[in-house]
Design brief:
Radius of gyration: 28 Å
Protein name: Planctomycete cytochrome C
Largest sheet: 12 strands, parallel
InterPro entries: Beta_helix, Multihaem_cyt_sf, PbH1, Pectin_lyas_fold, Pectin_lyase_fold/virulence, SO_2930-like_C, SO_2930-like_dom
Shape: globular
Number of strands: 47
Organism: Gimesia maris
Structural class: alpha/beta
Number of helices: 11
Length: about 775
């Protein structure tokens, strides 16, 4: 789309947001009236139909949404090119049936997901999401979430290039998934991760790698589902290195789990890529699991298997992780058929040792020797089997399954189930709580958006029309030592403080700005990066305001004449070209994020925070009208920063592009901290991965060394660990920095051009890491 068309569309979106649709009742301000109508927060019902403007109209409404809103999607096919974002509580999105209302992302060009939501009391029902680049519907950190009658599907059949997860609530509480359908996911069709109090019922999972997966989750009921035609049917996993670990109290009952014999099509490196085709139920490293009253049949490898994490042969660098499944009860199931054609290395070994069909219940026999009492695992921590009919049992005794023991005849798998016969106390049912009532006063962002001036010039930040980016007297420029890479754009940064107010110094985190502060950043491209004097093209100016209720941010897009910029809460794209430092002409489409995308990157512990102005990254010189001076010293001397210690006592972040500023390790860690840690940190939106890239993180396992990927999908690039010391070519981190694939590239916003300088230095960093030599733990 040409820039003019984008600008026209963005102007329309901005105006519609300022009006706030039906919530404001009037459009007098746009019709020539002198005053805006009174601002109101009123929940309403909005109806949408397919059409060329749906993407922008619907995302605009998601930005405007107030608690209690109901968004109706009429029957039809909706073609979308970008992922949708929702952050408001108490919103319902409702279609007319998952076969009638279809959101198609087949031609997706931006964002790796279909819908990303984080609001509490969310209801999604009666529509389908098809062919997303990565995950179909992800709900992060929400309480009270309902998926009802939703279908997710990759319509081209099972392919490694399909997205990873269909329905994907993660770190959520009080989750209901019912009457849903999940088809074609290259990881899990229905995936519940790191959540608490979950019910999955009356749903169907078919042609996925994993049909239904419950991972690192506490208190889940999975019942009356149909799970067939997947690689693995129903998986209950617990993985190391995640914020919530040691899942437990999971009940699987009255499910039909049959003919899950699909060849594994997961991208290599992902945990589910190790799941043998023909797996019915697989419990791995999870405690207190009750499996009962299920019909399980004709799964060609293992109908029911209970194993430790150790059986997968993965490195484990998490001292707080328990890799052993304990307190697993299997009773009153109907299990038949299957085991005739076991898959995978283990399946072939067992076939050669015990023949086929393999027994209906298989246990790896790996136990935690530290918990033995009189040489035995206590009953409450053991595996217990009862009333499953005439089924056979196999204890693999995996700890003794070695080539030497096999060759010498010392390995003898156990087929006698008598020591495992018995019952454990029944687990308690999950009791879900009703959704909370709307609280309109919680959505303060709408008032801020409503008050935003339509034109950047109305903020009075620059001399003249702002084309030169020369600030007025009370607007102070600043620079950073290591900056966020955004496709080789140049950036002009400024801060404006309210009159008479001061910033308070903080050693860590963003400086403490006074209410009323404004942070400003303009993105531009130098026409010729070899010659800054040749001029630049201004693209957008992002403005962050600090109000009593917190920080808020939005963008203004510069017009082609470079005389002003207009508010664009709905975001946009701008075609740009420039002469690069190598003399070659380059081009891209610059993404202007919508207001909800801004929140996804700027969220820390569910609060909007600025990213750049931390003391360590500001601790550098800058040019001012009265000469060159350290920025922190300048602000302190001007009476604008208080509590500043001596400069020599303030940490200084290494400068990524300056070799003299630190070691390769320090410079790379600084780069990852600035470019990645806003999400990959304990309070960021990628916290569920367990990857912590803050500069202060000292544990290599936490910032990726020998760390298994989580929810990576094809973003793993066929690699098994985030960082493999000495082997950048085996490290997922390198793949994600170099990839142009929507489902793999990182960061996933503002990163359409590969940052080659970062790729080179980070590759050197990994290459120079000491290589571990620890027996079987080599890559």
């Amino acid at each position: 789309m040409a820039l003019y068309q984008w600008m026209t569309c963005c102007r329309a979106i901005a105006l519609s947001v300022l009006i706030l649709g039906c919530s404001l009742l009037h459009v007098a301000v746009l019709a020539g009236a002198e005053e805006k109508p009174a601002f109101k927060l009123e929940a309403s019902t909005y109806t949408f139909s397919p059409g060329p403007e749906f993407q922008f109209e619907f995302q605009s409404r998601l930005i405007q949404a107030v608690p209690g809103d109901v968004l109706i999607l009429k029957a039809g096919r909706y073609d979308l090119h970008s992922g949708l974002n929702l952050v408001t509580d108490n919103v319902t999105i409702r279609g007319e049936g998952h076969e009638k209302t279809v959101l198609s992302f087949k031609h997706q060009t931006d964002g790796s997901f279909g819908l990303l939501a984080s609001g509490d009391n969310l209801v999604l029902e009666n529509f389908a999401v098809e062919d997303t680049s990565h995950n179909a519907i992800k709900v992060l950190g929400a309480e009270n979430v309902t998926f009802r009658g939703v279908r997710t599907e990759w319509t081209g059949g099972p392919k490694t290039t399909n997205g990873a997860y269909g329905l994907y609530p993660v770190q959520c509480k009080n989750v209901l998934i019912e009457n849903c359908v999940a088809i074609g996911a290259a990881d899990a069709g229905i995936y519940v991760g790191q959540s608490t109090d979950v019910v999955v019922r009356n749903s169907r999972a078919e042609a996925n790698v994993a049909g239904i997966e419950i991972e690192n989750t506490v208190n889940a009921d999975v019942y009356e589902n149909v799970v067939t035609g997947n690689t693995g049917g129903l998986l209950v996993f617990d993985l190391p290195g995640l914020p919530q670990k040691n899942g437990r109290q999971v009940r699987l009952f009255r499910n039909r789990i049959f003919k899950n014999n699909l060849a594994n099509f997961a991208p290599e490196g992902n945990m589910v890529a190790s799941v043998p085709a023909g797996t019915g139920i697989l419990v791995m490293a999870t405690d207190e699991v009750e499996i009962f009253e299920n019909t399980i049949r004709d799964n060609r490898s293992f109908n029911v298997s209970v194993v430790s994490f150790l059986i997968f042969g993965k490195k484990m660098k998490d001292p707080n992780y328990d890799p052993y499944p304990e307190g697993v009860s299997i009773h009153d199931n109907k299990i038949q058929g299957g085991g005739m054609d076991p898959d995978g290395e283990l399946g072939l070994i067992l076939k050669s040792l015990v023949g086929t069909p393999l027994p209906e219940i298989v246990y790896d026999g790996v136990i935690d020797s530290r918990k033995l009492v009189d040489g035995k695992i206590p009953a409450e921590k053991s595996l217990r089997i009862s009333n499953n009919g005439d089924v056979r049992f196999l204890n693999i005794d995996f700890g003794n399954l070695t080539p030497v023991n096999i060759a010498t005849g010392k390995y003898q798998p156990e087929t006698d189930a008598s020591s495992f016969t018995g019952a454990l106390p029944a687990l308690n049912p999950v009791v879900l709580q009703p959704h909370g009532k709307p609280e309109p006063t919680k959505n303060k962002a709408l008032q801020i958006y409503y008050d935003a001036p339509p034109k950047l010039s109305e903020l009075g930040l620059f001399q003249g029309n702002g084309a030169t980016q020369e600030p007025v007297n009370d607007v102070i420029p600043y620079e950073l030592l290591t900056t966020l890479f955004t496709d080789y754009t140049s950036k002009h940064r400024f801060v404006r403080l309210p009159a008479g107010e001061k910033i308070r110094f903080q050693e860590s985190g963003v400086l403490e700005f006074p209410v009323g502060s404004m942070l400003v950043k303009t993105f531009s491209y130098l026409k010729d990066q070899r010659d800054p004097g040749a001029g630049e093209r201004l693209l957008e100016t992002r403005v962050e305001f600090l109000k009593e209720s917190g920080w808020y941010g939005y963008s203004y897009i510069w017009n082609e004449e470079q005389t002003d910029a207009e508010l664009s809460l709905g975001g946009g794209e701008i075609d740009v070209s420039w002469i690069h430092t190598d003399g070659q002409v380059r081009s891209t489409r610059h993404l202007v994020p919508n207001a909800n995308q801004c929140i996804s990157c700027h969220s820390q512990n569910e609060k909007y925070v600025p990213l750049g102005p931390v003391a360590a990254n500001l601790n550098r010189k800058n040019h001012y009208a009265d000469g060159e001076e350290n920025q922190l010293a300048y602000l302190t001397r001007k009476g604008l920063l208080q509590g500043t210690p001596a400069l020599k006592e303030i940490t200084k972040l290494p400068e990524f592009s300056e070799p003299r500023s630190g070691t390769v390790d320090q410079r790379v860690r600084a780069y990852l901290a600035v470019n990645c840690a806003h999400c990959h940190s304990p309070g960021g939106n990628a916290r569920t991965t367990g990857l912590d890239l803050r500069f202060s993180q000292e544990d290599p396992a936490r910032w990726g060394v020998w760390k298994n990927p989580v929810a990576a999908g094809r973003g793993s690039g066929g690699r098994s660990y985030d960082i493999v010391p000495g082997a950048p070519e085996k490290s997922i981190l390198m793949h994600r920095l170099q990839s142009s694939d929507l489902a793999a590239r990182m960061p996933n916003i503002g990163n359409r051009v590969i940052h080659q300088e970062a790729v080179d230095l980070i590759g050197q960093w990994i290459s120079e890491m000491p290589v571990e030599r620890s027996g079987s733990e080599t890559p």
